Request: fold
Amino acid sequence: MIRSIVRGFGAALPKRVMTNSEIEGVVETSDEWIVQRTGIRQRYIAGEGETTASLGEAAARAALDNAGLTPDDIDLIILATSTPDNTFPATAVNIQNRLGMTHGFAFDMQAVCSGFVYAVSTADLYIRGGMAKRVLVIGSETFSRILDWKDRTTCVLFGDGAGALVLEAGEGEGTSADRGILTAQLRSDGSHKEKLYVDGGPSTTGTVGHLRMEGREVFKHAVGMITDVIEQAFEATGTTSDDLDWLVPHQANKRIIDGSAKKLNIDPEKVVITVDKHGNTSAASIPLALAVAASDGRIKKGDLVMLEAMGGGFTWGAVLLRW
Reply:
């Protein structure tokens, strides 16, 4: 059977680092408070000329270089983002143009922090369906542009950045020993919209708006929703947490990550954590974390890796793959 196998990975970050100490001068908060409640110590903030498209392009080029490929080898680009450069056209098309691609097709995917999991799942369907041989999957965000910098409950949490994977078609035997994507479990429930949303949009206010969040409510639902889809991914593949080499979660909050791993009996040493360095970069957080762990040699060929995320909507999902 056809499997979608990871061929390459890449990441890109803005030049500017904003530490918790710097945020202390923006809103009433403290480094101690932020670290204790979120695990975040710093984040990257996009500057002039740095956009979702420019960061996405840089991550894409890094992934292509890592894969030993060029844009000519790519059939499809899927960009997960909640912060597009423009309302339209899709920022993925912008990235396609920046890469010099005039073939294939490209589109954006909007599932907030779950966006990269949704995009990887979608790429897998295109590959297994025979419509694409190689897909560039990107998560890129400039969340700093939609933050209310007077709201200390949200502005301390988010950062900017981009990450990318190149997925390509390969042969598998149809077992959990195959390399590539083994299963995807996706969910959404729109009744939770008011808990995490942006209070603007072209059809409602005609403005971009700012991010709004009921932090306690999000935290209350997060662990249960995340563990649900991870357990279903294990069940679908006949694997368990003991078989897992790495959990690469959405980097929203260290307490959520720790709580999910504990509930699933996953060894903390198997959890990739980058939230301390990047903050919450929404759809970019998983590919950024993957790039860090693959670059430093933790994630190796043949490793069983679980991706999971939850975002506004609510949306949530998990992908189990063998690297």
